[in-house]
């Protein structure tokens, strides 16, 4: 729950540290316990690099798409400067943007180097919830992505240096999402150990995560939600992703 | 003969990308020591990584591997440093962080 830790006198953000740690652990699992055979380890590592780049860009682009109109609406309160631009670049990432960007990047890699897209992406899919689970612990440390106030013992007071509201206890949804992602990781990892048709592992992940995210979004309390038609951007994406997930599962069953 | 010629043409191109990847990786790692320069470090690291992977796939060499490794380290370190740097200032705290 500490937003920062000191290592050799350096103040390091737990948010960034846990995200990087999550990516490192997830990558190791994907490389050493691949769910599909026949893809060289080098290609798995390189596709993880591509996925990482795509995830950073996608998560940032979606955040900017949501945030910039809101900043422009409060133009009188915002001082536009290079510092603000730098902060907009560093502060705030939307998971779904990262997911879409990551999948598209792996698609680019597969096309560029003539590999089977589903074989490649389905090596990476099982570890996405694992990375996400560790990353949400970073959100908990930073105090972002919080939900509605709740009295203790279910509500907690965040660290004064965190970005969460002070002097009020909030339900730590980051921990709940972290646990749910960990469960999803175990389910998909076990599911992927057996031979599956192309698309089924990705489909299962889309179904599982879109349901989790759609429900948890109702409890979110942080201000930048990007609400359209009563639902947040992430809920709209969940609604679109759910049928895609079923489609991927169903098509593979028909082929079987 | 023509195959050898094609490989010969690919090797210098791959070598050039490997050198570029290595140089960008080194610059990106250094960027972490310059506050907001870490943002530049992330961008350079990403370019270095893509070039390094391309070089490794077309004409594998130790230089390409070094470029890839340095670029990955640079992105990771700059990401940690930059997020900390901005969080210390925390101007956007009231606007929101991640979604």
Explain what the structure shows.
The complex is a heterodimer of chains A (256) and B (99). Chain A contains 9 helices and 4 strands. Chain A is mainly alpha-helical. Chain A is globular. The mean pLDDT of chain A is 83. Chain B has 99 residues and is an all-alpha fold. Chain B has one domain (15-94). The chains are: A mainly alpha (256), B mainly alpha (99). The A-B interface holds A 3-4, 11-13, 15-17, 19-20, 23-24, 42, 46, 49-50, 52-53, 56, 62-63, 66-67, 70-71, 83-84, 86-95, 113, 139, 142, 144-145, 163, 222-226, 232-234 and B 36, 39, 42, 46, 49-50, 53, 56-57, 68, 72, 75-76, 79-99.
Percent of residues in helices of chain B comes to over 70%
Number of helical segments with 4 or more residues of chain B: 3
Question: How many strand segments of chain B?
Answer: 0
Order of helices and strands of chain A: EEHHHHHHHHEEH
% residues in beta strands of chain A = under 5%
Provide a brief overview of the structure.
The complex is a heterodimer of chains A (256) and B (99). Chain A is mainly α and 256 residues long. In chain A, 64% of the residues lie in helices and 5% in strands.
Write the layout of secondary structure elements.
The complex is a heterodimer of chains A (256) and B (99).
Chain A: E1 4-7, E2 10-13, H1 14-32, H2 41-73, H3 82-90, H4 95-112, H5 117-124, H6 128-142, H7 173-192, H8 200-217, E3 227-228, E4 231-232, H9 233-255
Antiparallel strand pairs in A: 1-2, 3-4
Helix pairs in contact in A: 1-2, 1-6, 2-4, 2-5, 6-7, 7-8, 8-9
Chain B: H1 2-31, H2 37-58, H3 62-89
Helix pairs in contact in B: 1-2, 1-3, 2-3
List keywords for this structure.
heterodimer, A: 256 residues, mainly alpha, two-stranded antiparallel ribbon, two-stranded antiparallel sheet, 5% strand, globular, B: 99 residues, 3 helices, 81% helix, disordered C terminus
């Amino acid at each position: 729950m500490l937003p920062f830790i000191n290592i050799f006198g350096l103040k390091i953000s737990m948010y960034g540290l846990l995200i990087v740690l999550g990516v490192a652990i997830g990558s190791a699992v994907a490389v050493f316990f691949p769910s599909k055979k026949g893809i060289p380890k080098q290609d798995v590592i390189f596709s993880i690099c591509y996925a990482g780049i795509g995830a950073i860009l996608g998560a940032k682009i979606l955040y900017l798409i949501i945030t910039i109109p809101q900043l422009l609406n409060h133009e009188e309160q915002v001082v536009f400067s290079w510092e603000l631009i730098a902060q907009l670049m560093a502060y705030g990432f939307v998971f779904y943007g990262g997911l879409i960007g990551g999948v598209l990047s792996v698609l680019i890699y597969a096309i560029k180097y003539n590999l089977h897209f589903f074989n490649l992406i389905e090596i990476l899919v099982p570890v996405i919830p694992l990375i996400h689970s560790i990353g949400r612990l970073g959100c908990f440390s930073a105090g972002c992505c919080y939900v509605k106030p709740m009295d203790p013992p279910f509500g907690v007071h965040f660290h004064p240096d965190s970005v969460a509201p002070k002097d009020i206890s909030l339900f730590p949804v980051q921990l709940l999402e972290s646990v749910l992602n960990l469960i999803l990781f175990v389910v998909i990892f076990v599911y992927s150990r057996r031979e599956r048709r192309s698309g089924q592992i990705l489909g299962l992940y889309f179904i599982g995560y879109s349901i989790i995210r759609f429900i948890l979004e109702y409890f979110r309390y942080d201000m930048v939600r990007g609400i359209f038609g009563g639902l947040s951007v992430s809920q709209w994406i969940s609604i679109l992703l759910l049928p895609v997930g079923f489609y991927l599962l169903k098509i593979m069953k028909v082929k079987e | 003969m023509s195959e050898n010629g094609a490989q010969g043409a690919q090797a210098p191109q791959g070598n050039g990308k490997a050198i570029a990847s290595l140089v960008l990786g080194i610059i990106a790692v250094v960027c972490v020591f310059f506050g907001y320069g870490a943002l530049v470090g992330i961008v350079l690291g990403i370019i270095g990584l893509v070039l390094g992977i391309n070089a490794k796939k077309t004409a594998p060499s130790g230089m390409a591997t070094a470029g890839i490794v340095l670029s990955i380290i640079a992105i990771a370190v700059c990401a940690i440093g930059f997020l900390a740097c901005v969080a210390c200032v925390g101007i956007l705290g009231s606007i929101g962080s991640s979604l």
